[in-house]
Amino acid sequence: MSSDAFELLVFFFMCIWMISTIYEQIKTGINDYHKSKEKIEKRNNELARQREMEKRKILEELRAKDLYRKLYRQIGIDPDTDSSPNK
Q1: Of 8-22, 35-49, 55-69, the least confident
Q2: pLDDT, tens digit (0-9, with 9 covering 90-100), for 64-86
Q3: 86 FRET partner, CA 20 to 30 A, in 31, 43, 56, 65?
């Protein structure tokens, strides 16, 4: 085998090795991207659940305040001034 043929063979195998290395890096990068995307989606879903729970809590508090206001009015007390009609 001549020296030129040997160098060509070495070059050919180096090209194959380099292409396979680049392919593995691209594949790893794509997998990392998908994992990061899943983490972000999971975190966004968790934040959305937390916001929904806070929203429900606030609505419950507002409903409770409204109920107390209605009850005060029924017994003759103005809930805005806390003054009774007997004064």
Answers
A1: 55-69
A2: 888 888 888 888 877 777 554 55
A3: 65
